[in-house]
Amino acid sequence: MKSITKQKPIEELKQQLEKFDRVYIAGCGTCATMTKTGGREEVLKMKEHLQELGKLVTGWTVVPTACDEMTEATVRENNGLLRMPDAS
Question: What is the value of pTM for the model shown?
Answer without folding.
Answer: 0.73
